[in-house]
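ok trying this again, last paste got cut off
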Amino acid sequence: MPTTTAHPCPPLADPALIAEFRIAPVAVISDNLHRLPGASGLLPQHKGGVMVGTALTVKTRPGDNLAIHKALDLVQPGHVLVVDGGGDLSRALIGEIICAIAQSRGAAGIVIDGAIRDVATIRAGDFPCFARGINHLGPYKDGPGHINVPVTVGGLVVQPGDIVVGDDDGVTAFPQAGAAELLQAVRQQEQREAEILASIREGRYVGAYAK
């Protein structure tokens, strides 16, 4: 019989660090990760707003959400459910009810490499939800699945405990180790970009390759 295996959740990321990344654009974070890590094709489905939290990962077979239901029992405030559904769009893995449960338990958002449904309700709300697509067909609940294992969403490998950030540009993730140094690089790039924009407004801009 198919089973769902669950491993313990790694420690949640430092709330102070989470707060700092809340004002860090995903595009700038991506630039400072050598533009390599980043989920492709997973777009925000909610009304808007930034998602930042600690990854609670789920790997499930296409079209089956039993492992997602079991992962909800492990959610702590600040978790982002990161679900590897193999990119399959044949059936929705979550909808309004799972989003409501996750939000009520303090989750910071959900990332689904697969389909969702009840989109009108999700889009009207501010609970962060990123997904590959939409399908009204409901999921199976047979398993198997795995919780808190390495997963891949949109080509991005996410480890349990990684910091996950999402905004209107998409989703990226990175290990807690080194996050403080990453944040410093992000702030430096933001300052450089602010200076470029100021030079454009003031008529001083001479081109990216000018010396």
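PB: full thing came through this time. The CA atoms of residues 89 and 115 lie 5 Å apart.
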